[in-house]
Write the structure tokens for this entry.
Amino acid sequence: MTQSLIWAALGTGFAFLMTVSGAATVFLFRKKVNEGFQKIFLGFASGIMIAASVWSLIIPAIEQAKQAGGLPWIPAAAGFLAGGLFLMAVDSLFDRYRKSENRSGLLVFAVTLHNIPEGMAVGLAFALAAQNMNSPELYAAAFSLALGIGVQNFPEGAAVSLPLRQEGLSSFRSFGAGVFSAAVEPAAGMAVVLVSEWIRPAMPWLLSFAAGAMIYVVVEELIPEANDGGASRKGTIGSMAGFLIMMILDVALSL
């Protein structure tokens, strides 16, 4: 158990630091972020989140459900739908703040929400590897998962902090929001190691739930903001670039 906790702390700690590093980019901008850059970045973040939803969340959920037996698409579909509906309900609660400086509150909440099952996935991967010391491929898979999640967390951290800075919050408060969104990941990784035997059956549902929440945010928030006005294709280009890079990373790390 101790070894599992150590490895889970290292894996989720790396993902946490990557998010913090991304959030720290807010200190590079003393004034308003260039609008063109903002559109490209929002598009890039949307592409990253779409690809991560598919390769880092939905596909692993289907594979885990398949190993457990039954119809593998049921947890994936039901969890995805539940995540989208849940964020839709949360979105309606944020409607009263849409005209204030809290427009990015939903994004902060969604990123924080999806970091929970990601931390759980990393913790579970290292817990399984520690329980099977004679299977080094399990460690390789756990390291690849932690690396992939960490890479995607860098733009996610920036995607949280930069819009908040854009809306008038101080650099330190915007950075703090990015750190807060990442803090749940190590906590979830540690928790899942302690209850790994009980949480494993629920992982397909949790991963798919996070994917549904992410896709809702992308469609509802990021893409419309990235293509506001429709006069430029910068957001579209950024989105395709983000999706392509994350797809390559996820597939390459899984080989």
Summary: The two ends are 28 Å apart (CA to CA). The chain has one domain: 2-26+33-253.
